[in-house]
């Protein structure tokens, strides 16, 4: 997959444009904030490299950044371009029209993202699910179940590819036939932890792997908090399943709070150290959830906005696969609609007719209402409209 660029550009100019973006991304001492500031002062990455030392000095850059911009490491950039030329690989810059709207809203959005898989998943309504790397059996099962249920309701599940809750969340979404995004703390030419190589392959086939770190970057501890702000930044909300008081998951949750996003936490036993982080978040204002319905009820208005934004894209740009149909009108959804007829019915009647559980019926009704297949009426009754 080629780098995203202006359709009028030739392949050669696209490659040149990508080359300057990649070179700027590798510049020492130029993080997200400084990079965005430079781009606001200079017209493009190319003009930054053409500016000269004096101009760069007047822009407030430190000496090591100026030395690099005057004499870039083109060999490293060429290695990035070799990675980019491989099937399924792409980059997305902060000036790309398809750059995720929610991510652009955070205080220091990445100037450039490396992507392996389908970039369109990044613009889908997403829920982050994070938690302990060493969860209990119940915690791991909860992560899988919540991810599967919410993926069936049209949410793309986003996490960090780590052991434990992260992996269970990705697996739950995949088993349900939904989409999932993994934000990594390494370059995308390697998988960390290595035992998740097959999982990473499945995610690339049914979602996307994303990183702001160039190929060749190893699993450095300092990279993971930076990765966490992207997980929460891409998402409408963050669900914490199990987390100790000192946990990277709490970094993600607090980043979500700072970004103005919803935070959800599943409570547990007061004697379980893995639930103390969740309880702390609830005391700080996170929403206590027991079922996926609680999350869908909170996010429903935001999902509608996100879907309307996605609908504004040309049809050719719409993501492929099941994520185009959030209501997923097949199987149990059609069964539920068939059970309704065209007269107002209550949830209890639908449970009796369909054989589904009350939780399943409630969450499916919410999705069907969002998709304008049914309308709610007085007395908690629902009517099929198409």
Element layout with pairings:
Elements lengths: L10 H15 L6 H10 L3 H6 L2 H6 L4 H8 L3 H11 L4 E5 L7 H4 L7 E6 L8 E5 L6 H16 L3 E4 L5 H11 L4 E4 L13 H9 L1 E5 L11 H12 L2 E4 L7 H11 L3 E4 L10 H8 L3 E2 L3 H20 L20 H9 L6 H8 L3 H13 L3 E3 L5 E3 L2
Parallel strand pairs: 3-4, 3-7, 4-5, 5-6, 7-8, 8-9
Antiparallel strand pairs: 1-2, 2-6, 10-11
Helix pairs in contact: 1-6, 8-9, 11-12, 14-17
Tell me about this structure.
The radius of gyration is 22 Å and the shape is elongated. The strands form two sheets. A nine-stranded mixed beta sheet has the order 1-2-6-5-4-3-7-8-9, sandwiched between helices. Helix content is 46%, strand content 12%. The chain has 17 helices and eleven strands. Helix 1 crosses helix 6, helix 11 crosses helix 12 and helix 14 packs parallel to helix 17 (358-370). It is an alpha/beta fold.
């Amino acid at each position: 997959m080629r780098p995203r660029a202006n359709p009028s550009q030739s392949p050669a100019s696209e490659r040149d444009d990508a080359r300057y973006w990649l070179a700027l991304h590798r510049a020492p001492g130029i993080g997200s904030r400084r990079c965005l500031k430079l781009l606001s002062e200079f017209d493009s990455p190319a003009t930054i490299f053409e500016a000269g030392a004096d101009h760069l000095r007047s822009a407030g850059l430190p000496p090591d950044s100026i030395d690099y911009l005057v004499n870039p490491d083109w060999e490293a950039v060429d290695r990035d371009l070799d990675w980019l030329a491989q099937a399924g690989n792409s980059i997305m810059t902060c000036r790309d029209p398809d750059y995720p709207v929610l991510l652009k809203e955070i205080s220091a959005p990445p100037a450039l993202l490396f992507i392996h898989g389908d970039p369109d998943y990044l613009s889908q309504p997403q829920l982050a699910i994070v938690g302990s790397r060493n969860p209990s059996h119940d915690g791991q099962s909860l992560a899988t179940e919540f991810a599967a249920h919410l993926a069936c309701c049209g949410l793309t599940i986003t996490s960090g590819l780590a052991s434990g809750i992260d992996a269970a969340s990705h697996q739950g979404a995949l088993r349900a036939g939904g989409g999932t995004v993994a934000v990594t703390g390494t370059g995308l030419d390697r998988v960390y932890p290595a035992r998740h190589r097959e999982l990473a392959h499945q995610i690339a086939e049914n979602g996307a792997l994303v990183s702001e770190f160039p190929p060749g970057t190893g699993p450095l501890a300092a990279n993971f908090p930076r990765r966490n702000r992207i997980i929460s930044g891409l998402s409408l909300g963050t669900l914490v399943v199990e987390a100790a008081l000192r946990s990277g998951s709490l970094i993600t949750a607090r980043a979500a709070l700072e970004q103005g996003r919803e935070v959800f936490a599943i409570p547990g036993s007061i004697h379980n150290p893995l639930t103390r982080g969740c309880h702390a978040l609830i005391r700080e204002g996170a929403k206590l959830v027991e079922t996926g319905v609680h999350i869908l009820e909170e996010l429903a208005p935001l999902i509608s906005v996100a879907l309307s934004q996605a609908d504004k894209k040309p049809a050719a740009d719409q993501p492929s696969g099941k994520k185009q149909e959030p209501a997923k009108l097949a199987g149990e959804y059609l069964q539920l609609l068939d059970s309704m007829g065209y007269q107002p019915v209550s949830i209890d009647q639908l449970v009796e007719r369909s054989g589904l559980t009350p939780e399943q019926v409630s969450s499916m009704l919410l999705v069907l209402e969002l998709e304008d297949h049914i309308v709610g009426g007085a007395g908690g009754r629902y009517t099929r409209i198409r």
